[in-house]
Amino acid sequence: MTDRDKAKLTTWLIERxxxxxxxxxxxxxxxxxxMRASPLPVHKRADRLLAHLNERTVEIGAPLHAPFQSxxxxxxxxxxxxxxxxxxRSFLFERGWLVHKRAWSGDDAALTVDGxxxxxxxxxxxxxxxAFVAMWIHPSTDSAYFNGIEPAIKECGFSxxxxxxxxxxxxxxxxxxxxxxxxxxxxADFTQDDGGARGSVYFxxxxxxxxxxxxxxxxxxxxxxxxxxxxxQYAHLSWxxxxxxxxxxxxxxxxxxxxxxLIPN
Length: 265
Known about the structure:
CATH class of the largest domain: Alpha Beta
Helix content: 40-55%
Structural class: alpha/beta
CATH topology of the largest domain: Rossmann fold
Shape: globular
């Protein structure tokens, strides 16, 4: 692997760990996909570096000493040299997201109010490939997820996150909110049974929409007529089999968000 490939692999490892995998498995398939994948766009690398600096900041306005010389700065920004880190550093200062707190020092940095606003903005639309799945979690819907939704998301180059599939889940409500915030988009399936609508799916879809995160609506054709009046206005993908659901989702995700290079789990 080249240094650039190793940097891309580091990005993959960081994202997998953020999704709850303590020891991501690096397979031959992962390596091959990493080598085919394009590097992160430069502006996203700068965003990741800014977010990293914010994570290291103890209190608002506090300066960080020599933050660009750490291995973490290289890792989070997918950089292979200090020249690249310094280029991103200059960009962050030029945008007014960072400021020197000590006039005599060129090696410190603190986030400005605009910088903090930028961190908040990118935290709602992260650079990860995660897609959150909101649905009725029940044995009767497992086939729709494992044979329809999850493979469709993967086919488009994203990683599916259904909360019951996550390792080490803490307080479930907090975990759901956090994972939605980390997601690029969500798939919300409103399939139900005679017991009535699944309120959690409506909540999760509404929460994502309130954050400006795209939502792809789906529902089994037998239950389209039971959708709440306040969500019927949105176009739902009506499906009858998991295979149909997969095909419809691939087309919708590709049309709305585009495809990404698929990197296996």
